[in-house]
Specification:
The complex is a heterodimer. In chain A, 38% of the residues lie in helices and 26% in strands. By secondary structure, chain A is of the alpha/beta class. Classes of the chains: A alpha/beta, B mainly alpha.
């Protein structure tokens, strides 16, 4: 599914990614965790093409990143900061993005709008939206498109409890239907509940990538995270 | 198609499709009216003391008036207005993150650039045609009528120059991050191109502004020289080269 080999990225003299190796299998939900500045966002940005890596290879469903258009059809990316046109409505925005993916599923879209509690605000200009509402809109778009893999950078930030529940349900449905998810998060308790495996990034390298059931034998994810941070520093 | 629609929506929301045609209509009207009423205007502005108006001076014909609309109005104020209206087409989306968003979707860089250039070019052609049409009407009414084919041929040649103008401003918008700098560089370079047009035949071949000069020559004389085609072809090659440069710049994430 998603294969990252020897991913390297530097900004000036700072090596942000030293050699990231990551494999995500079809139907898996992988939580991407790590401290601030570990390189999570840079890794996701390199995978999605937002940033060009200095070295390394990325493929999704055996399509290499160099085959730009085919590669970009394989995933939907929700960045931490959602960029939109402030003067159009969320409904128009979603339709614009759906057209880019050549997708149209009005009934699914309407049901997702209801699930995320966005019926009242979907026709309002995006300029009036809060950070959390923009994330909800991005999630509605992503689950309507239903790409082979969903890549998200801190998707739970700013979501209200209703949206978190809707998000978990949508993830479940999506994965049951063959979808794959890679998302970064700092919320270890949530990751513990919804992920099937955890990839732990530290100083630009994956230092641990294990299935959750194997990890939890040694304690909670929070304990393991704290130990890893302390041990290697 | 979705990208082109998005461009049109953005233009509508920014009222660009309203104010830009109005400005060009006013520009088009200004030249024939000014030329016709100049003596009256001078009189009403405080007399003609110190200004000598040659009574034997022949009234300009329609072709001269229409040619001066292209030369004086569109090639000076018009270019400044178009540069200002177009300067943010890519810079704005670089700054607000929209370009990064769109280019991580199944959209090629070529589709992204082409949608921007084509939509803005169509708007520019529409505005110029509207202003030119108004100028043509008033010129016919106040002076003499210019043969329609001659007028259309001149407009077509002018639109070749216009394509270069829009693509060049888009290229500056890709390279630089400051709106003011983009507008300044674009206006200076385009003005230089326009001022040196006609200076040397060899220079004219590579100077896209020679198409604007040819437009005025066609209006004045009705002569369409065969070698104008070479100038058009060279301008098209320059446009293609600029798009390829923008493509390379964006692909290498140099923004």
């Amino acid at each position: 599914m998603l294969k990252v080999e020897n991913l390297q990225k530097s900004y000036g003299s700072q090596d942000v990614l030293k050699s990231v190796e990551l494999k995500v299998e079809k139907g898996e939900i992988v939580g991407f965790v790590g401290g601030n500045g570990a390189g999570k966002t840079t890794t996701l940005n390199c995978i999605t093409g937002l940033v060009e890596q200095d070295n390394g290879k990325v493929t999704i469903n055996n399509v290499p990143k160099s085959q730009s258009l085919d590669y970009k059809k394989q995933f939907y990316f929700i960045p931490d900061t959602i960029h939109v046109f402030s003067n159009i409505t969320a409904y128009d925005w979603i339709h614009f993005v759906l057209k880019l993916y050549e997708k149209k599923d009005e009934s699914k879209l309407k049901s997702l709008i209801t699930s995320f509690g966005m019926e009242a605000s979907i026709d309002k200009p995006l300029g009036t939206y809060s950070y959390g509402m923009l994330h909800k809109m991005a999630l509605i778009t992503a689950f309507t498109i239903c790409p082979p893999i969903l890549i998200m950078d801190e998707p739970l930030n700013g979501l209200d409890p209703l949206a978190v529940v809707a998000f978990k349900n949508c993830m479940k449905d999506y994965v049951e239907n063959g979808g794959t998810i890679l998302f970064s998060t700092h919320l270890l308790d949530v990751a513990e509940k919804i992920c099937q495996s955890i990839a732990f990034l530290k100083d630009g390298k994956i230092v641990l990538h294990e299935r959750l059931e194997n990890l939890l034998v040694d304690g909670s994810l929070e304990t393991i995270f704290l130990e890893k941070q302390a041990n290697d520093s | 198609m979705a990208l082109s629609k998005k461009e049109v929506t953005q233009m509508t929301k920014e009222f660009k499709i309203v104010w830009l045609p109005i400005v060009f209509i006013l520009l088009g009207l200004t030249q024939p009216i000014m030329m016709y009423y100049m003596p009256v205007i001078l009189q009403s502005m405080g007399g003609v003391e110190g200004i000598m108006i040659d009574p034997t001076m022949a009234k300009p014909n329609g072709s001269e008036v229409l040619a001066s609309t292209l030369n004086s109005q569109f090639d000076q104020l018009g270019i400044i207005i178009l540069a200002v209206a177009t300067m943010g087409i890519i810079q704005g989306e670089k700054a607000n993150g929209m370009m990064a968003f769109i280019l991580t979707r199944p959209v090629s860089i070529s589709s992204y650039l082409n949608s921007k250039i084509i939509v803005h070019y169509i708007l520019a052609v529409f505005c110029i045609a509207l202003g030119y049409g108004m100028s043509y009407g008033y010129t016919s009414y106040l002076f003499t009528t210019v043969p329609v084919m001659q007028g259309l041929l001149a407009l077509a040649l002018y639109c070749v120059w216009l394509l270069f103008v829009i693509t060049f401003v888009a290229m500056m918008s890709t390279f630089f991050n400051s709106s003011a700098f983009i507008a300044l560089v674009s206006i200076v370079v385009l003005f230089i191109c326009r001022f040196i047009a006609g200076l040397h035949p060899f220079l004219d071949v590579v100077n896209p502004a020679s198409n604007s000069l040819h437009a005025t020559i066609v209006l004045m004389s009705g002569d369409m020289k065969a070698w104008y085609g070479i100038h058009i072809a060279v301008t098209m090659l320059l446009v293609i080269w600029m798009i390829a440069t923008m493509h390379h710049f964006i692909a290498k994430k140099k923004f």
